[in-house]
Amino acid sequence: MSTKSRRSEHANESPVKTLGRLVFEYDKEMCKSWVEEIDTLMLFAALFSAVVTAFAVASFEWVTKARTDPTTALLARISMQLEHFADPMVPVANLPTLLASAGNNDPPISLGIARRVNGLWYTSLTLALSSALICIICKQWVREYHRVSMSGSSEDFSFRQMRLGGLQAWRVPEIIISISLILIGALLCFFVGLAYFVWGLDRQVGIALITIEGIAAVGFLVTTLMPGLQYCYAALCIPRLRRVPAQCAWKSPQSMLFL
């Protein structure tokens, strides 16, 4: 629908109905942006949880293997020997190899590193699933807010203002913003656990991985702190500057914590 047709359609509206229509469109766009953000975060949380679950299941086996009682390995060796005596057809030359393989169930990393990796990865998984739960709850709140339409009466305006005040008083926009911060925390835990794991397997590969993660972390910190640093710089130096610098566009929920 063109702009002229919309204007002609609403030309005979009363001011109250026009105001009600504009308020309803404003609320509709606000709720739409929230729902789109929540859906995106929920999709990312689901995919990320699936990835972390695969790593967490494998890492849990490392801890259980490291806690295996030495008696179990000894009994496995005795069983191998008895099997050899019961079946003389088993070559004696293969017996040391079989005995070594019976007790060779050690995890690829030490128990201390395995515990740290498990703690970080399961923390990451818990944060990701918690963010998905918050997404579901926030979507219910937004749907309930936008459930009643505006007909243009004074009661509708009062009811709408009451619901909007409730959203703001109970920090619903801030809770929606916090979902991305929780997912960032989950990502950080996963990356730190991955660095621990690779470092325990191979130091050279671990150095390469930590270097890549370090570059990503530096970029994240720069984009997070730069808006706040520019604000401080502008507050101190703008009176002495001939030209006002361009505003930093790297604003995000985490950068707003420093503004």
Automatic annotation (TrEMBL):
Pfam families: DUF6535 (PF20153)
Keywords, ordered alphabetically: Membrane, Transmembrane, Transmembrane helix
Keyword RNA-binding tagged: no
Keyword Membrane attributed: yes
InterPro entries registered for this protein in UniProt: DUF6535
Transmembrane region(s): 40-60, 120-142, 175-199, 205-233
Highest taxon, organism lineage: Eukaryota
Domain spans labelled DUF6535: 24-199
Name recorded for this polypeptide: DUF6535 domain-containing protein
Protein species of origin: Cylindrobasidium torrendii FP15055 ss-10
